């Protein structure tokens, strides 16, 4: 017995009646004709996902990944930066980064608080400026919070309070305008940075490493033994960081499009491949499947794919994951231990390897693998975007020339971001040092959270008083109990 199925015929449109939108889609004063409700909704969701990477994502990751006596300080550095960046962003940061051009690398300072401005259409996308200001804010905030990862465990909190607004103003806004603003110098040239491989990750990695140099190292005992105080919390923060990257790269096209979908898939494929690559290398060379190493591999994969997430094919995401799981592994696990110059700078969360090197790698690989058709979907033009390998595949003199040109621009962008952040971060640190010490005192570093904030991460409170209030320094020491079992006081 056989069955046949005929799909129902589509309903015939009554061409005699004028077309009209459903009532919920009709334009009105709150939803003007230029605004796309779906795009606006997705952009707000994407921004929230990116915000959650910081609050609570990196708060939890930092708080769990550091020694117990630094859990509060590390988490609070992230929370403070998130709040301070937002106030600076709406008062002057956004317009410096995306406003009218002052010079080829910087916009004009102005507020982004007026009703008239915030309800106008954004410079890109079919949604209001208010949505764009919030979306770009969460990227600026996470950049500062990533920098904090390099100086955990010794930076004076008062110095951090000054560093955040100064670095945002005199470093981040330069990079954002130059690479992302339509009026920026490198943007006009045709640099490819899909969602922040240059603006965020190379910047934060280089700036963090530079700041770590000026702040100085942790205590010798902390450098030699700095095990995570709560591995499960660290994994929870890492998970929020990974899932939040859906908004990080998926929101980059400013539209709920096919390209956004491709970017999301490529992002997670590259991250997973990188994590597995790092894990396999740890097992082969150190005979242990390190959880901390797996988190580092996840992060390097996310960073590497970011400059080209929606501009490369799926196989390229796999290749990029293999490179991002192996090259930063080599620089961190091998070169770091052999090169004395790298050992002089105390980079707490290995920002140089996980963000600067992985971001540079991503920028180069994006220049190699980017596809003109995908670039057209994202940029709306193929005249100046040509991946090197695609140019070689086409084999014409023009395509090869465009491929070489793209690689030159990608390398020029790396040079610009590296030099910008070394110079500006150094100037900011030297200025802050004139006002307050960059580094905590030896005594405060011995104690940790209680000395800096008067609070501890894991304390028992009874009727408003702490029970068994000991220094965090001694809380990290394991002591034998009366029963002979090991306990932690």
Automatic annotation (TrEMBL):
PANTHER family: AMMONIUM TRANSPORTER AMTB-LIKE DOMAIN, AMMONIUM_UREA TRANSPORTER, AMMONIUM TRANSPORTER MEP2
A single cellular component GO annotation: plasma membrane
Family: Belongs to the ammonia transporter channel (TC 1.A.11.2) family.
Ammonium transporter AmtB-like domain ranges (all copies): 41-458
Listed transmembrane segments: 41-63, 75-95, 133-152, 159-180, 195-216, 228-248, 260-284, 291-309, 315-335, 411-436
Alphabetically ordered keywords of this record: Ammonia transport, Membrane, Transmembrane, Transmembrane helix, Transport
Keyword Transport recorded: yes
GO MF term list: ammonium channel activity
Lineage summary: Eukaryota, Viridiplantae, Streptophyta, Embryophyta, Tracheophyta
The protein's name: Ammonium transporter
InterPro entries: Ammonium/urea_transptr (IPR029020), Ammonium_transpt (IPR001905), NH4_transpt_AmtB-like_dom (IPR024041), RhesusRHD (IPR002229)
Entries under NCBIfam families matching the protein: amt
Membrane topology: Multi-pass membrane protein
GO biological process: ammonium transmembrane transport
Domain of life assignment: Eukaryota
Cellular localization per UniProt: Cell membrane
């Amino acid at each position: 017995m056989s069955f046949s199925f005929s799909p129902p015929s589509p309903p015939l449109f009554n061409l005699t009646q004028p077309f009209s939108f459903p009532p919920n889609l009709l334009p009105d004063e709150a939803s003007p004709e230029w605004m796309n409700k779906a795009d606006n909704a997705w952009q707000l969701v994407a921004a929230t996902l990116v915000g959650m990477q910081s609050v609570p994502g990196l708060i939890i990751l930092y708080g769990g990944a550091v020694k117990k006596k630094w859990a509060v300080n590390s988490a609070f550095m992230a929370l403070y930066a998130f709040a301070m960046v937002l106030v600076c962003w709406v008062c002057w940061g956004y317009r410096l980064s995306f406003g009218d051009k002052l010079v080829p690398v910087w916009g004009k300072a102005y507020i982004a608080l007026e009703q008239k401005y915030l309800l106008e259409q954004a410079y890109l996308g079919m949604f209001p400026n208010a949505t764009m200001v919030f979306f770009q804010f969460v990227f600026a905030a996470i950049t500062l919070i990533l920098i904090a990862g390099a100086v955990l465990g010794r930076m004076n909190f008062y110095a951090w309070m000054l560093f955040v607004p100064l670095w945002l103003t005199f470093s981040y806004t330069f990079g954002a305008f130059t690479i992302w603003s339509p009026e920026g110098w490198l943007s006009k040239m045709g640099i490819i940075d899909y969602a922040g491989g240059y603006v965020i990750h190379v910047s934060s990695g280089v700036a963090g490493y530079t700041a770590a140099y000026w702040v100085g190292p942790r205590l010798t005992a902390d450098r030699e033994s700095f095990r995570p105080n709560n591995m499960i919390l660290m994994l929870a923060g890492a998970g929020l960081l990974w899932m939040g990257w859906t908004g990080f790269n998926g929101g980059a096209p400013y539209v709920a499009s096919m390209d956004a979908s491709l970017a999301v898939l490529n992002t997670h494929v590259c991250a997973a491949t990188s994590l597995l690559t790092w894990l396999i290398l740890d097992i082969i060379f150190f005979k242990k499947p390190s959880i901390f190493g797996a988190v580092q591999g996840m992060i390097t994969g996310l960073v590497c794919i970011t400059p080209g997430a929606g501009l490369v094919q799926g196989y390229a995401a796999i290749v990029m994951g293999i490179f991002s799981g192996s090259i930063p592994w080599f620089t961190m696990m091998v070169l770091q231990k052999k090169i004395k110059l790298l050992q002089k700078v105390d980079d707490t969360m290995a920002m140089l390897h996980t963000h600067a090197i992985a971001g540079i790698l991503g920028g180069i690989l994006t220049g190699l693998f980017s596809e003109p058709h995908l670039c057209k979907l994202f940029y709306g033009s193929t005249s100046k975007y040509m991946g090197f390998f695609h140019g070689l595949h086409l084999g014409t003199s023009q395509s090869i020339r465009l491929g070489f040109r793209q690689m030159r621009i990608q390398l020029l962008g790396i040079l610009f971001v590296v030099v910008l952040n070394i110079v500006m971060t150094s100037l900011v640190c030297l200025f802050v040092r004139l006002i307050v010490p960059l580094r905590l005192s030896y005594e405060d570093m011995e104690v940790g959270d209680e000395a800096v904030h008067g609070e501890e991460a894991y304390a028992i409170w009874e009727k408003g008083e702490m029970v068994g209030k000991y220094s965090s320094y001694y809380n990290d020491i394991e002591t034998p109990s009366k029963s002979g079992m090991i306990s932690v006081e």
